[in-house]
Amino acid sequence: MLEAAVILVAGFWAGMINVVVGSGTLVTFPTLLLFGYPPLTANVSNNIGLVFGGLSGSWGYRREAAENKQLLVRLLPISLLGGLTGAMLLLVLPASAFGTIVPVLILLGLLMVAAGPALQRRAARVSARSSSPRAPRGRAVALAVGTAVLGMYGGYFGAAQGILLMGLMSVVTVHNLQQVTGIKNVLVTAVNAVAAGVFLLAAGEAINWTVIALIAVGSTLGGFAGARFGRRLSPTAMRTLILVIGVAALARMAFAG
Questions:
Q1: What pLDDT is stored for residue 115 in this prediction?
Q2: Of the candidates 11, 24, 111, 221, which lies 20 to 30 Å from 118 by C-alpha distance?
């Protein structure tokens, strides 16, 4: 009962963090390892369970997502293909393959989030002075490539995928953080869902349905709570929260290592 309660609470916390920022996997994944679940079982079961939190969080941010429907239509297929590739890689490559670069990626994402406002202002000034379409096209290409890479990473492991996406979009788009959050929630949920489908078909022996149920219930409730909480934050407060949680995730990983 204690184990179930802890996993349920971890799922709630992860669901709430994922909606507002990302990196909820860094809560649930270590929790499952702490209770003795094998890494593959923990990764696969956690991924499937968190899909439900992504759905509730995406619903909570449905207005922001609808405002950027055209961008989502362009990015969703890229995320899905990346997620499919990453999930298939998880089945054939050692889990440590990306583990060594996760802290570097998280740090990069945090730097992009922190520098986002200044870079967006600079990009807006450049666009205003120039009629050339090269800069917007270059940013569009960077966004597409980055989304594909992060989709693959998300399908493989997924820790802090949300932070990285928010960092990427803070640099190469002119959307505010609430809009970026709505876009990020849909893309991350899509990646997790396609990866979950691969795991259900090809890694049935690594699935623990009890863990999935606990994380699904917890993350669904956390997703609704996170959407209500996140939408009330000012851009400065939200950016600060992203940086605090990201640094805490880095510290946790360094301590675990």
A1: 67
A2: 24
